[in-house]
């Protein structure tokens, strides 16, 4: 117990909390947008993975991490629209489509990685660069808070800004109104002459942008290389966060933070004598417990 | 009528509509709507009202016929086109997003914008509250749909159409879901709309309402518009006799009923639906072996809820059911089947069959445990033998018992349902609209089967909106209106169509004592 | 006449699904070929190597069969759950923990080898059932999403498994992370010398027959199919639907667990997995290819295994990464699963068939 307290109450724990939360928050916001539009986008995992690799390549060969970020976003959008095309226009089952897509993402990234750097494990051989970390002027000076909040990767700040953006988008714009209608009552949307398909494609594209940024963070912020299957289920955790957060941007972010605590804790505990495997299990276990509690609560609410 | 022609805003001429499954919904429909009137369209279920309205709103395209708007011929090929031409429709099932506010629902699809990107909330509220005020709707447009009453939901639908510039409003059975107070309120609003120059087409089968609010009425029967009259020149009795009528009387000979033991007794069944409307209000009756009791009534008066409760598909809120004098403990579908109740559901596609499975699988779905070898393995040879027999018996048109159900026509699917339900070891048959939307041949087959089983000693409860069926099959008849049994007739043979029509439409109601005869 | 027409349409539908499959495979290979052309100067020889690879030596051909065994188990496991319309992907975790369970039994249980093997496989199955049962029970009781839950559960299974492995089975003297060796004779033997093909191939054959029989020939299987096709209909005909749904997931888990056990006892002499084997997702892939029919799953598994072994050979000879297979597989299954793919053409043919019939051209 003492070790636990020791691990948690350090500024480095909270610093790493923000760091590990970044991809989860971004991906869960992507999941929030699509689930509001009535699509369960399990493909977010694969989108992140492919974007992460695309970002590294673009950064190394086209001109630095900013180009990398741009390409990652673009690739994220393309992947997302592809999933939409297959599941909506070609009418394949959307769950199966996404599972196929994720399988392809894992293998396909390795294929291309090998084609370029002749390595099936990582792209360490490439000098792909890193998106900058930003010291925040005044906050930086504050003793503890400065260490926690300042000097994060720019995408970490972007991710929390995105919570705000997604909130505005969903609740304060006509597009958001249509997206929410597409998910809640597609017939109502069609009855007023708005194209359901178009609305869903737009939602998917936005989700692709967020997934793309999340991927770029993984390979150009979190670390500075791509490694095989580096997302390790973060896209799935994001889906769980979306479910637990009741598909609201704030709720999903809170749930992501909860999972991030478990993950940060697992890194903190790695230096202790705690069995490392159980520590690594924490974020997933937390997700399961969270999901089950959520469904119990939802069921109880319904019964009322 | 000649001098009124100048004011005709909407005219339909010689409309014919045949659905892909072969059902002729509109045979020869002619309708003239005059500017600024409230025009009632009345007819039995299946008379073709809804189809006609779908055509006028661009949701269906007719095979033949012409539509004129303000004297000009128009092609209504999509709801969007109809909306643009100033036609609005309030569907029976609301097209509203529950989690959004009234204002958001009103502006959805034509949202006001601020800075080219943001939703202009203030403008949105202004638009919706202005339109609500203009037409005297006292609603709070900032409330969420999920929190408001059905009446307000309907008002939202009307406002949605008005905001989009509707001059002609089609209301599809608007009062079916409303309480009496809400209905009164709606009428007030409709009169106001009329005053402001709107034209309203009002679909209903409630005579008193038509008498109260409408200017003219068009009566439909079996896909044909029978007559259009001024409401003040007609009477409920006249309308009712014109809309309720049999087309071809197929006579099925049947022997007099041999009333047997008491099979099923329902005591004070009550059921309130999700919207909070009481669909069954203390319904009691007794069902005896060897008799067919029909439940007549206009759709939506609680009959389908009754059928679903008697088969375990829905759970009652109050009351009890006794089968052969034993009180039911468990109200699951399984329990009803074990007690010998079989059920032909109205929705044969999503409840009555698994369409991607074979005919054989469908037939034996409820009898799996009776066709086993060593208690585990399906006895396929016995299944095949019986399936063949029943397919022949029920004249299912197919090339093999392994053919998938979704390759069959509606009538043949219903035969498969019947072949499953009516071959079990049963005592009580609950048949809900067993011949709706299917061809005459199949209808006759199923009706004959019902009589056959009644003669063999089964108790049959026939829920039907088809008067032909009620008169042909039933020995006794009850009428449901507004969630209650409002009439009971000991002998259907002595009943006339006119008489039945009055009760179905609530023009007449029997006294409590008369109705109670059914279980006394 | 109508009967003839129905039979005819039915026949055409069957032809059409075959044509669609062939076209899908062709397109998938074509796109993959284009992708390969970007990364190698000799895409033709790479593709050729992919196809002939498995036939180059007996050893390679037997590897195809060895690879198809666990794939088939995974396919059957997912099949039983998909048939009840449960998107439970915990087969993956069941497979992993099943393998570990059988390894522990194989290391420690002082029983005659045959009994050890039977016990190991049986316990592996039970563990698999438990893993797949968790999302099942949460679905049935609280309507949790079995899909998301099972995805998370797989990781939990991996880490718990690794923990147990490190605690009880790890051989400290081993150079790499591996368990103590299995006891003498506790393995599924060797069928053909100089290959690793083991008796698991008979076991999997038994399971194919068993699963097929179960789904199509038993009362439980029939109820399971009914519930999967139309839940409402299932309730209406008086089936205890929650029990059936639960059963499908326990059985699916059992098959996955046994599959893990058979793979472990057939291919290895020590437990040495440190990551999830990926069979859960493979199971989904196989079911799309096999149209959720257990009888076709071994064929699909063989095809997938063939591709993978061919790709390994191609990797050695042509320096094209074997993971291209993942792209080929994904393209094929997406096109096979896409209902609208070639539908316009199909519709045209059917219209012509029915119209021709009306014209009396028999």
TrEMBL record, chain A:
Subcellular location: Cell membrane
Key words, A-Z: Cell membrane, Membrane, Transmembrane, Transmembrane helix
Entry membrane topology: Multi-pass membrane protein
Pfam families for the chain: BPD_transp_2 (PF02653)
Molecular function (Gene Ontology), one example: transmembrane transporter activity
CC annotations in GO: plasma membrane
Transmembrane residue ranges: 12-34, 46-63, 69-88, 95-117, 154-171, 201-225, 278-296
Signal peptide: none
UniProt keyword Glycoprotein, yes or no: no
The UniProt record lists the keyword Transmembrane helix: yes
InterPro entries for the chain: ABC_transp_permease
PANTHER family in alphabetical order: GUANOSINE ABC TRANSPORTER PERMEASE PROTEIN NUPQ (PTHR43370:SF1), SUGAR ABC TRANSPORTER INTEGRAL MEMBRANE PROTEIN-RELATED (PTHR43370)
Protein name per UniProt: ABC transporter permease
Provenance organism: Oribacterium asaccharolyticum ACB7
Lineage, top ranks: Bacteria, Bacillati, Bacillota, Clostridia, Lachnospirales
TrEMBL record, chain B:
Pfam families to which the protein is assigned, alphabetical: ABC_tran
PANTHER family: CARBOHYDRATE TRANSPORT ATP-BINDING PROTEIN MG119-RELATED, GUANOSINE IMPORT ATP-BINDING PROTEIN NUPO
Gene3D superfamilies: P-loop containing nucleotide triphosphate hydrolases (3.40.50.300)
Any one Gene Ontology cellular component term annotated for this protein: plasma membrane
Recorded GO MF terms: ATP binding; ATP hydrolysis activity
Sorted UniProt keywords: ATP-binding, Cell membrane, Membrane, Nucleotide-binding, Repeat, Translocase, Transport
Main location: membrane
Upper taxonomic lineage: Bacteria, Bacillati, Bacillota, Clostridia, Lachnospirales
Localization: Cell membrane
Membrane topology: Peripheral membrane protein
Organism of this sequence: Oribacterium asaccharolyticum ACB7
SUPFAM superfamilies: P-loop containing nucleoside triphosphate hydrolases
Domain ABC transporter: start-end pairs: 10-247, 264-507
SMART domains (UniProt xref): AAA
InterPro entries, per the entry: AAA+_ATPase, ABC_carbohydrate_import_ATPase, ABC_transporter-like_ATP-bd, P-loop_NTPase
Name of this chain's protein: ABC transporter domain-containing protein
UniProt KW Repeat keyword: yes
Top-level taxon of the source organism: Bacteria
UniProtKB/TrEMBL annotation, chain C:
Regions crossing the membrane: 21-40, 60-82, 94-111, 117-138, 147-165, 197-215, 236-259, 321-342
Superkingdom: Bacteria
CC per GO annotation: plasma membrane
Entry annotated with the keyword Transferase: no
Keywords noted in UniProt: Cell membrane, Membrane, Transmembrane, Transmembrane helix
Pfam families cross-referenced by the UniProt entry: BPD_transp_2
GO molecular function, a single term: transmembrane transporter activity
Membrane topology, record value: Multi-pass membrane protein
Name of protein: ABC transporter permease
Organism whose genome encodes this protein: Oribacterium asaccharolyticum ACB7
């Amino acid at each position: 117990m003492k070790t636990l307290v020791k691990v948690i109450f350090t500024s480095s724990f909270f610093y790493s909390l923000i760091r590990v939360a970044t991809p989860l928050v971004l991906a869960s916001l992507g999941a929030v947008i699509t689930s509001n539009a009535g699509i369960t986008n399990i493909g977010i995992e694969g989108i992140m993975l492919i974007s992460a690799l695309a970002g590294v390549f673009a950064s190394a060969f086209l001109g630095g991490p900013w180009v990398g970020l741009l390409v990652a976003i673009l690739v994220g959008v393309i992947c997302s629209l592809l999933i939409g095309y297959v599941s909506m226009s070609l009418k394949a089952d959307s769950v199966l489509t996404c599972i196929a897509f994720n399988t392809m993402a894992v293998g396909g990234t390795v294929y291309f990685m090998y084609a370029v750097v002749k390595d099936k494990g990582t792209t360490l051989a490439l000098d792909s660069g890193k998106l900058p970390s930003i010291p925040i002027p005044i906050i930086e000076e504050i003793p503890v808070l400065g260490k926690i909040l300042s000097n994060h990767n720019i995408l970490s700040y972007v991710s929390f800004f995105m919570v705000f953006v997604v909130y505005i988008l969903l609740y304060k714009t006509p597009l958001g109104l249509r997206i929410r209608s597409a998910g809640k009552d597609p017939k109502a949307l069609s009855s007023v002459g708005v194209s359901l398909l178009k609305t869903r494609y737009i939602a998917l594209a936005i989700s692709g942008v967020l997934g793309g940024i999340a991927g770029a963070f993984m390979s150009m912020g979190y670390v500075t290389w791509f490694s095989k299957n580096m997302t390790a289920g973060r896209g799935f955790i994001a889906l769980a966060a979306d479910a637990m957060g009741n598909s609201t941007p704030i709720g999903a972010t809170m749930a992501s933070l909860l999972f991030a605590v478990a993950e940060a804790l697992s890194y903190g505990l790695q230096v202790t004598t705690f069995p490392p495997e159980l520590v690594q299990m924490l974020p997933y276990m937390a997700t399961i417990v969270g999901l089950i509690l959520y469904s119990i609560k939802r069921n109880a609410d319904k019964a009322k | 009528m000649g001098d009124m022609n100048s004011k005709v805003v909407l005219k339909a001429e010689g409309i014919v509509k045949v659905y892909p499954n072969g059902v002729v919904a509109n045979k020869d429909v002619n309708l003239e709507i005059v500017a600024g009137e409230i025009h009632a369209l009345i007819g039995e279920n299946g008379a073709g009202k809804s189809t006609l309205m779908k055509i006028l709103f661009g949701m269906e395209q007719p095979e033949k016929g012409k539509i004129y708007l303000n004297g000009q011929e128009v092609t209504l090929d999509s709801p969007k086109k109809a909306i643009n031409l100033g036609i609005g429709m309030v569907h029976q099932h609301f097209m509203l997003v529950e989690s959004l506010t009234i204002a958001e629902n009103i502006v959805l699809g034509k949202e006001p914008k601020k800075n080219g990107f943001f939703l202009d909330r203030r403008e949105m509220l202004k638009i919706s509250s202005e339109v609500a005020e203009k037409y005297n709707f006292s609603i709070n447009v900032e409330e969420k749909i999920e929190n408001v009453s059905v009446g307000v939901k309907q008002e939202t639908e009307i406002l949605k159409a008005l905001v989009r510039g509707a001059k002609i409003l089609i209301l599809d059975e608007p009062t079916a879901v409303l309480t009496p107070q809400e209905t009164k309120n709606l009428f007030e609003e409709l009169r106001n709309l009329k005053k402001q120059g709107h034209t309203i087409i009002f679909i209903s089968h409630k005579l008193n309402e038509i008498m109260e609010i409408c200017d003219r009425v068009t009566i439909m029967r079996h896909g044909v518009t029978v007559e259009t009259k001024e409401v003040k020149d007609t009477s409920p009795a006249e309308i009712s006799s014109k809309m309720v009528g049999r087309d071809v009387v197929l006579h099925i000979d049947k022997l007099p009923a041999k009333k047997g033991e008491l099979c099923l007794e329902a005591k004070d069944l009550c059921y309130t639906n999700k919207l909070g409307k009481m669909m069954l209000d203390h319904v009691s009756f007794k069902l005896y072996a060897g008799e067919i009791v029909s439940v007549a009534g206009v759709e939506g008066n609680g009959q389908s809820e009754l059928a679903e409760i008697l088969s375990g598909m829905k759970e009652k809120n109050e009351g009890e059911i006794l089968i052969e004098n034993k009180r039911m403990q468990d109200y699951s579908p399984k329990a009803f089947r074990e007690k010998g109740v079989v059920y032909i559901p109205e929705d044969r596609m999503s409840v009555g069959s698994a369409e991607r499975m074979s005919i054989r699988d469908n037939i034996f779905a409820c009898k799996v445990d009776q066709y086993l070898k060593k208690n585990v393995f399906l006895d396929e040879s016995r299944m095949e033998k019986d399936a063949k027999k029943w397919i022949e018996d029920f004249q299912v048109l197919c090339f093999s018992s392994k053919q998938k159900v979704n390759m069959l026509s509606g009538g043949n699917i219903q035969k498969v349902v019947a072949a499953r339900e009516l071959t079990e070891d049963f005592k009580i048959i609950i048949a809900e609209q067993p011949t709706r939307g299917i061809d005459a041949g199949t209808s006759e087959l199923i009706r004959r089967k019902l009589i056959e089983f009644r003669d063999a000693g089964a108790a049959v409860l026939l829920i039907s909106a088809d008067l032909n069926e009620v008169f042909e099959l039933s020995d006794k008849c009850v009428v449901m209106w507004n969630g209650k049994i409002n009439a009971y007739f000991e002998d259907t043979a002595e009943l006339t169509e006119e008489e039945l029509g009055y009760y179905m439409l609530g023009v007449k109601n029997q006294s409590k004592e008369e109705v109670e005869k059914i279980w006394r | 006449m109508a009967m003839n027409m129905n039979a005819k349409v039915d026949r055409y539908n069957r032809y059409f699904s075959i044509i669609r499959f062939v076209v899908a495979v062709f397109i998938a290979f074509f796109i993959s070929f284009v992708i390969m052309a970007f990364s190698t100067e000799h895409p033709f020889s790479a593709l050729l190597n992919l196809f002939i690879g498995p036939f180059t030596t007996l050893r390679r051909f037997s590897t195809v069969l060895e690879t198809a065994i666990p794939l088939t188990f995974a396919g059957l496991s997912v099949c039983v759950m998909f048939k009840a319309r449960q998107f439970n992907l915990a087969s993956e975790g069941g497979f992993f923990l099943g393998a570990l369970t059988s390894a522990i039994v194989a290391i420690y249980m002082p029983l005659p080898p045959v009994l050890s093997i039977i016990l190991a496989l049986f316990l592996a199955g039970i563990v698999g059932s438990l893993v797949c049962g968790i999302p099942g029970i949460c679905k049935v009781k609280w309507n949790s999403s079995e899909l998301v839950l099972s995805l998370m559960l797989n990781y939990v299974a991996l880490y718990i498994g690794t923990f147990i492995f490190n605690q009880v089975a790890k051989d400290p003297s081993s150079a790499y992370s591996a368990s103590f060796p299995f006891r003498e004779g506790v393995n599924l033997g060797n069928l053909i010398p100089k290959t690793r093909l083991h008796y698991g191939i008979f076991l999997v054959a038994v399971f194919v027959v068993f699963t097929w029989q179960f789904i199509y020939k038993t009362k439980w299987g029939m109820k399971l199919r009914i519930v999967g096709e139309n839940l409402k209909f299932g309730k209406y005909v008086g089936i205890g639907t929650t029990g059936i749904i639960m059963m499908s997931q326990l059985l699916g888990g059992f098959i996955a667990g046994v599959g893990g056990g058979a793979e472990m006892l057939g291919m290895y002499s020590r437990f040495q997995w440190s990551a999830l084997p990926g069979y859960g997702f493979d199971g989904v892939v196989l079911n799309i290819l096999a149209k959720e029919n257990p009888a076709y799953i071994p064929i699909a598994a063989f095809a997938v295994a063939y591709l993978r072994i061919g790709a390994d050979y191609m990797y050695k000879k042509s320096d094209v990464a074997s993971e291209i297979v993942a792209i080929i597989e994904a393209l094929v299954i997406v096109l096979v699963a896409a209902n609208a793919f070639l539908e316009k053409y199909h519709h045209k043919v059917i219209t012509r068939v029915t119209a021709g019939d009306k014209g009396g051209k028999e």
